[in-house]
Structure to design on (357 residues):
Protein backbone atom coordinates (compact mmCIF):
# COMPACT_ATOMS: atom_id res chain seq x y z
CA UNK A 1 0.00 0.00 0.00
CA UNK A 2 1.46 3.34 -0.99
CA UNK A 3 0.01 6.79 -0.74
CA UNK A 4 0.86 10.33 0.21
CA UNK A 5 -0.93 12.78 2.48
CA UNK A 6 0.52 16.19 1.69
CA UNK A 7 0.19 19.40 3.62
CA UNK A 8 2.32 22.42 2.89
CA UNK A 9 4.96 20.40 1.06
CA UNK A 10 5.20 17.77 3.80
CA UNK A 11 3.98 14.22 3.45
CA UNK A 12 3.43 10.90 5.15
CA UNK A 13 4.96 8.33 2.83
CA UNK A 14 5.50 4.61 2.64
CA UNK A 15 8.51 2.51 1.76
CA UNK A 16 8.26 -0.79 -0.09
CA UNK A 17 7.94 -2.70 3.17
CA UNK A 18 6.10 -0.20 5.36
CA UNK A 19 2.35 -0.16 5.75
CA UNK A 20 0.99 3.08 7.16
CA UNK A 21 -2.01 3.96 9.23
CA UNK A 22 -4.84 5.67 7.29
CA UNK A 23 -3.72 8.73 5.36
CA UNK A 24 -6.05 11.04 7.26
CA UNK A 25 -4.58 10.05 10.64
CA UNK A 26 -2.26 13.08 10.61
CA UNK A 27 -3.33 16.19 8.74
CA UNK A 28 -3.32 19.97 8.86
CA UNK A 29 -1.57 21.81 11.71
CA UNK A 30 -0.68 18.61 13.56
CA UNK A 31 1.39 17.38 10.64
CA UNK A 32 3.32 20.65 10.64
CA UNK A 33 3.89 20.50 14.40
CA UNK A 34 5.19 16.94 14.19
CA UNK A 35 7.45 17.76 11.31
CA UNK A 36 8.94 20.62 13.35
CA UNK A 37 9.60 18.14 16.19
CA UNK A 38 11.29 15.80 13.74
CA UNK A 39 13.64 18.56 12.64
CA UNK A 40 14.33 19.37 16.29
CA UNK A 41 15.31 15.73 16.85
CA UNK A 42 17.70 15.96 13.93
CA UNK A 43 19.22 19.17 15.33
CA UNK A 44 19.62 17.49 18.72
CA UNK A 45 21.35 14.56 17.03
CA UNK A 46 23.80 16.91 15.30
CA UNK A 47 24.75 18.38 18.68
CA UNK A 48 24.96 14.87 20.12
CA UNK A 49 27.47 13.81 17.47
CA UNK A 50 29.58 16.93 17.91
CA UNK A 51 29.66 16.36 21.67
CA UNK A 52 30.81 12.74 21.19
CA UNK A 53 27.95 11.33 23.26
CA UNK A 54 26.63 8.79 20.77
CA UNK A 55 25.35 8.10 17.29
CA UNK A 56 23.49 10.51 14.98
CA UNK A 57 20.01 9.90 16.35
CA UNK A 58 17.47 11.92 18.34
CA UNK A 59 13.99 11.31 19.73
CA UNK A 60 11.20 13.14 21.56
CA UNK A 61 7.90 12.29 23.26
CA UNK A 62 4.58 14.14 22.88
CA UNK A 63 0.85 13.99 23.61
CA UNK A 64 -1.78 15.47 21.29
CA UNK A 65 -5.02 16.45 22.99
CA UNK A 66 -6.93 17.34 19.84
CA UNK A 67 -5.68 20.91 19.59
CA UNK A 68 -2.30 21.16 21.31
CA UNK A 69 0.82 19.06 20.89
CA UNK A 70 2.19 18.77 24.42
CA UNK A 71 5.95 18.27 24.67
CA UNK A 72 6.56 15.62 27.33
CA UNK A 73 10.27 14.86 26.91
CA UNK A 74 13.18 15.50 24.60
CA UNK A 75 14.59 15.82 22.17
CA UNK A 76 17.35 13.60 23.50
CA UNK A 77 20.22 11.93 21.69
CA UNK A 78 21.71 8.46 21.40
CA UNK A 79 24.01 7.75 24.38
CA UNK A 80 25.79 4.49 23.54
CA UNK A 81 29.27 6.03 23.54
CA UNK A 82 28.78 8.01 26.75
CA UNK A 83 26.94 5.36 28.79
CA UNK A 84 28.54 2.23 27.37
CA UNK A 85 25.10 0.62 27.11
CA UNK A 86 24.59 -1.40 23.96
CA UNK A 87 21.13 -0.04 23.15
CA UNK A 88 21.09 3.38 24.80
CA UNK A 89 19.48 4.61 21.62
CA UNK A 90 17.54 7.85 21.38
CA UNK A 91 14.15 6.11 21.74
CA UNK A 92 15.45 4.25 24.79
CA UNK A 93 16.68 7.52 26.33
CA UNK A 94 13.37 9.28 25.82
CA UNK A 95 11.63 6.38 27.61
CA UNK A 96 13.58 6.62 30.87
CA UNK A 97 11.35 6.18 33.94
CA UNK A 98 10.98 9.86 34.80
CA UNK A 99 9.78 10.61 31.27
CA UNK A 100 7.31 7.73 31.29
CA UNK A 101 6.00 9.02 34.61
CA UNK A 102 5.52 12.47 33.04
CA UNK A 103 3.74 10.87 30.09
CA UNK A 104 1.36 8.99 32.35
CA UNK A 105 0.59 12.17 34.29
CA UNK A 106 -0.20 14.09 31.10
CA UNK A 107 -2.44 11.32 29.80
CA UNK A 108 -4.27 11.09 33.12
CA UNK A 109 -4.94 14.81 32.93
CA UNK A 110 -5.90 14.97 29.24
CA UNK A 111 -7.95 11.78 29.06
CA UNK A 112 -7.96 8.59 26.99
CA UNK A 113 -9.03 10.46 23.84
CA UNK A 114 -5.50 11.82 23.48
CA UNK A 115 -2.79 10.39 21.22
CA UNK A 116 0.88 9.71 21.94
CA UNK A 117 3.58 10.56 19.40
CA UNK A 118 7.16 9.38 19.67
CA UNK A 119 9.26 11.22 17.11
CA UNK A 120 12.60 9.73 16.07
CA UNK A 121 15.13 10.97 13.56
CA UNK A 122 15.55 7.42 12.25
CA UNK A 123 13.68 4.14 11.88
CA UNK A 124 13.77 2.23 15.15
CA UNK A 125 15.85 -0.91 15.53
CA UNK A 126 14.01 -4.04 16.75
CA UNK A 127 15.08 -3.43 20.36
CA UNK A 128 13.59 0.07 20.39
CA UNK A 129 10.54 -1.17 18.48
CA UNK A 130 9.95 -3.76 21.22
CA UNK A 131 10.33 -1.12 23.94
CA UNK A 132 7.86 1.20 22.21
CA UNK A 133 5.38 -1.66 21.83
CA UNK A 134 5.71 -2.48 25.53
CA UNK A 135 5.12 1.14 26.50
CA UNK A 136 2.09 1.41 24.20
CA UNK A 137 0.58 -1.79 25.59
CA UNK A 138 1.10 -0.69 29.18
CA UNK A 139 -0.62 2.66 28.56
CA UNK A 140 -3.58 1.01 26.84
CA UNK A 141 -3.79 -1.73 29.45
CA UNK A 142 -3.86 0.84 32.26
CA UNK A 143 -6.69 2.75 30.59
CA UNK A 144 -4.58 5.85 29.96
CA UNK A 145 -4.64 5.59 26.15
CA UNK A 146 -7.09 4.32 23.58
CA UNK A 147 -6.08 1.48 21.27
CA UNK A 148 -4.48 2.67 18.03
CA UNK A 149 -3.45 6.03 19.52
CA UNK A 150 0.27 5.36 20.01
CA UNK A 151 2.27 6.54 16.99
CA UNK A 152 5.98 6.38 16.17
CA UNK A 153 7.13 8.85 13.50
CA UNK A 154 10.59 8.75 11.96
CA UNK A 155 12.71 10.41 9.28
CA UNK A 156 15.64 8.31 8.01
CA UNK A 157 15.01 4.72 6.91
CA UNK A 158 17.28 1.74 7.56
CA UNK A 159 18.64 2.23 4.03
CA UNK A 160 19.28 5.93 4.63
CA UNK A 161 21.14 5.17 7.84
CA UNK A 162 23.31 2.53 6.17
CA UNK A 163 24.11 4.60 3.11
CA UNK A 164 24.79 7.88 4.92
CA UNK A 165 26.09 6.98 8.38
CA UNK A 166 27.32 3.41 7.94
CA UNK A 167 25.03 1.77 10.50
CA UNK A 168 23.23 -1.31 9.21
CA UNK A 169 20.21 -2.20 11.33
CA UNK A 170 18.20 -4.03 8.68
CA UNK A 171 20.01 -7.40 9.15
CA UNK A 172 19.04 -7.40 12.82
CA UNK A 173 15.40 -7.10 11.84
CA UNK A 174 15.78 -9.71 9.08
CA UNK A 175 17.41 -12.11 11.54
CA UNK A 176 14.33 -11.93 13.75
CA UNK A 177 12.04 -12.97 10.88
CA UNK A 178 13.85 -16.30 10.50
CA UNK A 179 12.84 -19.58 12.10
CA UNK A 180 14.31 -19.98 15.62
CA UNK A 181 16.91 -22.53 14.58
CA UNK A 182 18.15 -20.30 11.76
CA UNK A 183 18.75 -17.11 13.76
CA UNK A 184 22.20 -15.79 14.64
CA UNK A 185 21.77 -16.22 18.38
CA UNK A 186 21.40 -19.84 19.41
CA UNK A 187 18.71 -20.61 22.00
CA UNK A 188 18.91 -23.61 24.28
CA UNK A 189 17.43 -24.96 27.50
CA UNK A 190 19.05 -26.00 30.75
CA UNK A 191 17.64 -27.48 33.94
CA UNK A 192 18.51 -25.38 36.97
CA UNK A 193 20.56 -28.19 38.52
CA UNK A 194 22.70 -28.31 35.40
CA UNK A 195 23.43 -24.56 35.33
CA UNK A 196 26.81 -23.31 36.59
CA UNK A 197 26.96 -23.45 40.38
CA UNK A 198 28.52 -19.97 40.60
CA UNK A 199 25.22 -18.29 39.71
CA UNK A 200 22.63 -21.04 40.14
CA UNK A 201 21.11 -19.32 43.18
CA UNK A 202 20.49 -16.14 41.18
CA UNK A 203 18.65 -18.17 38.55
CA UNK A 204 16.63 -19.97 41.22
CA UNK A 205 15.52 -16.53 42.46
CA UNK A 206 14.23 -15.64 39.00
CA UNK A 207 17.09 -13.37 38.01
CA UNK A 208 18.89 -13.35 34.66
CA UNK A 209 22.64 -13.74 34.29
CA UNK A 210 25.25 -12.77 31.71
CA UNK A 211 28.16 -15.24 31.74
CA UNK A 212 31.22 -13.72 30.10
CA UNK A 213 33.89 -15.58 28.18
CA UNK A 214 36.48 -14.76 30.87
CA UNK A 215 34.55 -16.36 33.72
CA UNK A 216 32.74 -13.36 35.18
CA UNK A 217 28.98 -13.20 35.55
CA UNK A 218 26.55 -10.31 35.94
CA UNK A 219 23.11 -10.63 37.52
CA UNK A 220 20.00 -8.66 36.63
CA UNK A 221 16.61 -8.61 38.37
CA UNK A 222 13.22 -7.63 37.04
CA UNK A 223 12.88 -3.91 37.83
CA UNK A 224 9.72 -3.16 35.87
CA UNK A 225 8.07 -1.71 38.92
CA UNK A 226 10.29 1.32 38.29
CA UNK A 227 11.15 0.97 34.60
CA UNK A 228 8.60 -0.50 32.17
CA UNK A 229 11.31 -2.10 30.00
CA UNK A 230 13.71 -3.30 32.71
CA UNK A 231 13.15 -7.05 32.51
CA UNK A 232 15.63 -9.28 34.30
CA UNK A 233 17.42 -9.92 30.99
CA UNK A 234 17.72 -6.23 30.10
CA UNK A 235 18.96 -5.47 33.62
CA UNK A 236 21.63 -8.17 33.32
CA UNK A 237 22.85 -6.82 29.98
CA UNK A 238 22.93 -3.26 31.33
CA UNK A 239 24.84 -4.37 34.43
CA UNK A 240 27.38 -6.23 32.32
CA UNK A 241 27.94 -3.23 30.05
CA UNK A 242 28.32 -0.90 33.04
CA UNK A 243 30.87 -3.25 34.58
CA UNK A 244 32.81 -3.33 31.32
CA UNK A 245 32.81 0.46 31.20
CA UNK A 246 33.96 0.70 34.84
CA UNK A 247 36.82 -1.69 34.06
CA UNK A 248 38.09 0.67 31.37
CA UNK A 249 36.90 -1.17 28.27
CA UNK A 250 36.89 1.01 25.17
CA UNK A 251 33.88 -0.91 23.82
CA UNK A 252 31.77 -1.73 26.89
CA UNK A 253 28.66 -2.29 24.76
CA UNK A 254 30.35 -5.36 23.23
CA UNK A 255 29.92 -8.32 25.59
CA UNK A 256 32.10 -10.42 23.30
CA UNK A 257 29.93 -13.46 22.69
CA UNK A 258 28.78 -13.82 26.28
CA UNK A 259 25.90 -16.13 27.21
CA UNK A 260 22.57 -14.89 28.56
CA UNK A 261 20.82 -17.16 31.08
CA UNK A 262 17.13 -16.38 31.50
CA UNK A 263 14.41 -17.87 33.73
CA UNK A 264 11.86 -17.38 30.93
CA UNK A 265 10.05 -20.15 29.11
CA UNK A 266 10.26 -18.39 25.73
CA UNK A 267 12.48 -15.73 24.17
CA UNK A 268 10.79 -12.37 23.77
CA UNK A 269 11.72 -9.81 21.11
CA UNK A 270 13.24 -7.38 23.60
CA UNK A 271 15.47 -10.04 25.11
CA UNK A 272 16.62 -11.21 21.68
CA UNK A 273 17.14 -7.77 20.13
CA UNK A 274 19.07 -6.47 23.15
CA UNK A 275 21.23 -9.58 22.95
CA UNK A 276 21.93 -8.76 19.29
CA UNK A 277 23.22 -5.29 20.18
CA UNK A 278 25.33 -6.59 23.08
CA UNK A 279 26.96 -9.30 20.95
CA UNK A 280 25.53 -12.23 22.92
CA UNK A 281 26.25 -15.58 21.29
CA UNK A 282 23.70 -17.77 23.05
CA UNK A 283 20.55 -17.55 25.16
CA UNK A 284 19.88 -20.32 27.67
CA UNK A 285 16.37 -20.67 29.09
CA UNK A 286 15.85 -22.37 32.44
CA UNK A 287 12.07 -22.49 31.85
CA UNK A 288 10.97 -21.90 35.44
CA UNK A 289 9.17 -18.58 34.89
CA UNK A 290 6.12 -17.64 32.83
CA UNK A 291 7.08 -13.97 32.96
CA UNK A 292 6.24 -12.05 29.77
CA UNK A 293 7.82 -8.95 28.28
CA UNK A 294 4.38 -7.47 27.59
CA UNK A 295 1.62 -8.12 30.09
CA UNK A 296 -1.10 -8.79 27.53
CA UNK A 297 0.67 -11.25 25.22
CA UNK A 298 3.03 -14.22 25.41
CA UNK A 299 6.65 -13.89 24.36
CA UNK A 300 6.29 -16.06 21.23
CA UNK A 301 3.38 -14.05 19.83
CA UNK A 302 4.99 -10.77 20.85
CA UNK A 303 8.19 -11.79 19.03
CA UNK A 304 6.23 -12.24 15.80
CA UNK A 305 4.56 -8.83 16.13
CA UNK A 306 7.86 -6.99 16.57
CA UNK A 307 9.61 -8.97 13.84
CA UNK A 308 6.79 -8.60 11.30
CA UNK A 309 7.21 -6.59 8.14
CA UNK A 310 5.41 -4.64 6.85
CA UNK A 311 4.71 -2.70 10.03
CA UNK A 312 1.30 -2.08 11.60
CA UNK A 313 -0.01 -5.60 11.20
CA UNK A 314 -2.56 -7.40 13.35
CA UNK A 315 -1.83 -7.10 17.05
CA UNK A 316 0.57 -4.14 16.81
CA UNK A 317 -0.01 -1.49 19.47
CA UNK A 318 2.44 1.08 18.06
CA UNK A 319 1.64 2.54 14.64
CA UNK A 320 4.79 3.25 12.60
CA UNK A 321 4.83 6.24 10.23
CA UNK A 322 7.58 7.79 8.14
CA UNK A 323 7.60 11.57 7.64
CA UNK A 324 9.10 13.30 4.61
CA UNK A 325 10.91 15.46 3.62
CA UNK A 326 13.71 14.94 6.12
CA UNK A 327 17.07 16.68 5.89
CA UNK A 328 19.01 14.06 7.90
CA UNK A 329 21.67 16.53 8.97
CA UNK A 330 22.99 14.47 11.88
CA UNK A 331 23.84 11.39 9.84
CA UNK A 332 25.67 13.54 7.30
CA UNK A 333 27.58 15.16 10.19
CA UNK A 334 28.50 11.71 11.48
CA UNK A 335 29.71 10.69 8.02
CA UNK A 336 31.78 13.88 7.73
CA UNK A 337 33.44 13.32 11.11
CA UNK A 338 34.00 9.66 10.38
CA UNK A 339 35.79 10.51 7.15
CA UNK A 340 38.02 13.00 8.98
CA UNK A 341 38.69 10.93 12.11
CA UNK A 342 37.31 7.36 12.27
CA UNK A 343 38.28 7.04 15.96
CA UNK A 344 36.05 9.98 16.87
CA UNK A 345 32.94 8.23 15.56
CA UNK A 346 33.15 4.61 16.63
CA UNK A 347 30.58 2.26 15.14
CA UNK A 348 28.90 0.01 17.68
CA UNK A 349 26.75 -2.54 15.88
CA UNK A 350 26.69 -5.71 17.96
CA UNK A 351 26.61 -9.14 16.34
CA UNK A 352 28.82 -9.77 13.35
CA UNK A 353 26.33 -9.74 10.49
CA UNK A 354 27.37 -9.92 6.86
CA UNK A 355 27.00 -6.47 5.35
CA UNK A 356 26.91 -4.64 8.68
CA UNK A 357 29.59 -2.45 10.17
Amino acid sequence: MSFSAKDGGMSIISDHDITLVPANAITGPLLGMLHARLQACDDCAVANVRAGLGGPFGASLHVYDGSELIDVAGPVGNAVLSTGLASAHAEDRVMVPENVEKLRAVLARVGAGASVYVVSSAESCPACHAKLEILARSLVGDGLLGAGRFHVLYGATYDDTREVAGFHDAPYHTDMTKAPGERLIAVGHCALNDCPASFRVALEQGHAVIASHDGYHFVGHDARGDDVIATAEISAIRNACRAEQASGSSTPWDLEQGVLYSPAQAVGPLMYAEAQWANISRIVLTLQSKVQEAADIGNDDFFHIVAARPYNGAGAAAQIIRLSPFENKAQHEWARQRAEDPEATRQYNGLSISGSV
